[in-house]
Amino acid sequence: MHRLRTCAARLRPLTACQMAQSPSQPRPAQAPLRTFPQPTRHYTAPVAAEPFLNGTSSNYVEEMYYSWLENPKSVHKSWDIFFRNANAGAPPGAAYQSPLPLGGDLRGPGLGQAVVGSQPSVEKLVEDHLAVQTLIRAYQVRGHHIAKLDPLGISCVNFDDAPVTVGFHQVGFYGLDEADLDKVFRLPTTTFIGGNESALPLREIIRRLEMAYCQHIGVEFMFINDIDQCQWIRQKFEKPGVMQFTLEEKRTLLARMVRSTRFEEFLQRKWSSEKRFGLEGCESLIPALKTIIDKSSENGVENVIMGMPHRGRLNVLANVIRKELEQIFCQFDSKLEAADEGSGDVKYHLGMYHRRINRVTDRNITLSLVANPSHLEAVDPVVQGKTKAEQFYCGDADGKRVMSILLHGDAAFAGQGIVYETFHLSDLPSYTTHGTVHVVVNNQIGFTTDPRMARSSPYPTDVARVVNAPIFHVNADDPEAVVYVCNVAAEWRATFHKDVVVDLVCYRRNGHNEMDEPMFTQPLMYKQIRKQKGVLQKYAEKLIAEGVVTRQEYEEEISKYDKICEEAYARSKDEKILHIKHWLDSPWPGFFTLDGQPKSMSCPSTGLNEEELENIGRVASSVPEEDFTIHGGLSRILKGRAAMIQSRMVDWALGEYMAFGSLLKEGIHVRLSGQDVERGTFSHRHHVLHDQNVDKRTCIPMNHLSSNQAPYTVCNSSLSEYGVLGFELGFAMASPNALVLWEAQFGDFHNMAQCIIDQFICPGQAKWVRQNGIVLLLPHGMEGMGPEHSSARPERFLQMCNDDPDVFPKITEDLPVRQLYDCNWIVVNCSTPANYFHVLRRQILLPFRKPLIIFTPKSLLRHPEAKSSFDEMLPGTHFQRMIPDDGSTCKNPGAVKRLIFCTGKVYYELVKERRSRGMEDTVAISRIEQLSPFPFDLVKAETDKFPQAEIAWCQEEHKNQGYYDYVKPRLRTTTDQARPIWYVGRDPAAAPATGNKKAHLVELQRLLDTAFKLDAFKGHS
Ligand SMILES: Cc1ncc(C[n+]2csc(CCOP(=O)(O)OP(=O)(O)O)c2C)c(N)n1
Ligand SMILES: [Mg+2]
Predict the structure, then answer these.
(1) Apex CA 399: angle with CA 394 and CA 404, to 5°?
(2) Which tens digit of pLDDT belongs to each residue from 564-582?
(3) Using a 6 Å CB cutoff, which residues line ligand 1?
(4) pTM for the whole structure
């Protein structure tokens, strides 16, 4: 709010005279660059004669004039001279001079002398027209600063101490005087206030500008770089008479306001001490959303995906999405029993999916509200991802049928960085949803913090400017203005397929929740709020006064809705059981049985036949487009791949290729997203080939597998983790029939997306009965690269697994699948390409979906031993949860002195060391590939096999990190607490790895020494 105080001062424009005195001098502080927000343009048009004060050329001259004011060198020298002369007083006919030859002195005696001082009336004419144009532009640029946006009037009353410099009495600032008010001025083409008239008296120009820009709507758009888009907006707000409503529209609006208001009142009456984060003070949100949906439906949208925070959520569920009222009311009953598995969530976080007829357009519409955590704005990218997926599956390439609406609180919109990350996805080819309508419930407070302490920008919406989204601020106490801007916002989205923001400036009638006392912290604001008449009452009185409705009709409307609520309340008492699945935001029809169970509890073999492997391998080593020149280094890589396929082997990249390729051929969409994933951070993947001779010509061999394959999407993302992982999670939410993978550049970067992992991926199913098969690829491994790129923090993921360390499961045939069904996510670290291949395919062949966390290798990508034979991938083969030691230890297991369990890359270091020490008979090394759910059955078989062996867990990570804390109690349970579990690895440490290469190698050698020193644990207890 305090920002507004300075805004008014800024409204004072720069007059041409002020600027022309010294165009190249630095601007005075009061005249910031924002006066001319468009980027400097470089006009080099030939000099014409001077009929520039009429028609479109005046617009052109105006543009050029602004450029010149910004930077005199940005225009042709002849224009520079012209503007200098004109501003120095030269009449139009005399202002033009031929430019001096290059290097000539513009300050030479000839210039200016001949032209200044003559024909003062024409001179005034030029100045006055330019001044009027400046005035019009000032309204367009900054009219919103003085629009009456705040229903409480606080921002103006308390903070605006600078004079307002537009209006009838302020024309002096523009070099005009009161006498000019009745002069007629030609209107530039950059305004539509004239309607059918091309010239108006200045008084009328100002009046119309005040009507367009300074009433209850404040339009922020002049930063948009596209002239057509600016013109479109000007037209929507400047044309005389644009904001007119039919009687029917007004009545509908009143009915919607009645529902919105009475719903909150009803909840307040029945459950006065329950938290519901009511909408009181912003009741016009409901007609706002309904307008956006109606208008979008009219424009062909069939599916709207919404994300929103707590404020007014129950009201939106009831009156926008139209969830049955009894389902909402019964949520307030504390005796309600939960019917579903999982821990559930509070009522103002649950999602919703509803398909119905839109009554205004009579068309089908599907509305879904995505469930969200308390973490504000975290749902934004998830909604976008789901929207993108819905568009993808219905072939809606330009977003005409599916769209998203995101709601925000003012404090969260300004404060949360994820908002910015999400905006930056909005125009990227593989992430765009072709325009989102954002609605901000700007109640001018966040919990107890007012905007002066909550943000450094004038508006909570300024973040949207980075993507050139127009921002419509509107006083939410004027429901007609609200509906008008929402219509324009929906039309904008339908026309330009770009984001747009509606900022509902309102207030919060109660505390943050209904139990809070707001007077503790905002006494003056709340004194004002107490005096504030409710918006429904104000609007009803307006319509009654206008004769649109009678008081009786209005009261009938109220009692009609109250009765609906009462009846639903009575019915809600019959509800005894809460089904969270009734609150599912993304049903997967056909994937489960009718009562929501998996269709089986088994997983078929994930192997492929030889021919299939060869076929995919051939594509992976070819360039399937004619006349396509690839880089020489890449040719060598492809040749290497061909040779590997020839010898029936795969490395990591080929294992992945086989998994993706086979799923695509089976009709499963595969989407791989993350930073630099197309080539692969470690330059091993190369899924997108670039023609070395033709700019932007690329080829994705994976899309050349077969004619009826599913499409493959591989996309380098923006440099964001939180936003992009959220997006992919949302994408994976839309359908179970896609393999959606997000790869971190290095595994440790996942913590930038911690909120998505902690709030959505880990507990998503438990909270919202919603499954998700997203795959996280997290490069991990101690390679001496320093503390930063070494650890993907397996300990964090393992600590959040829900399998019980102390319970040895009942061993049944379906244990492996049942364990997967019961877990909250799967954590693996594969040591072979074949196992990586299997686990990716298993993700889709399972009859349910679980998030899959894969710690992926770095040096193993090129390790000569980390290769797999086709034999490990043929029909009948499957993912190996544990790879037992199958070397010479098997010949005489009783002689084995030590059984080392490990996971991932350290296996290869251990095997090499064992070989060099000749200890193949005495030390067994087994790899736990699936860490969670823990393969108790297989591990038990292995420990039983080596009864004389000491059991050790070996990891290259530090003791307080990695897998040890997770694995140890499970190994203990497996051995019935009978055998000690020894630790081999680095000591506890604060950082994940040393920054010193030598120290790294010393540490590694030390742990290898311990691993093979058979008396290392003697005497230890
Ligand atoms: C990421 C995050 N940080 C903190 C909170 C705690 N919190 C809940 S509501 C709230 C204030 C939100 O203000 P605003 O966005 O303006 O929404 P309003 O409640 O005013 O509608 C805060 C700080 C949260 N929910 N999420
Ligand atoms: Mg707020």
Answers:
(1) 100
(2) 999 999 999 887 777 767 7
(3) 311, 374-376, 409-412, 441, 443, 445-447, 508, 512
(4) 0.88
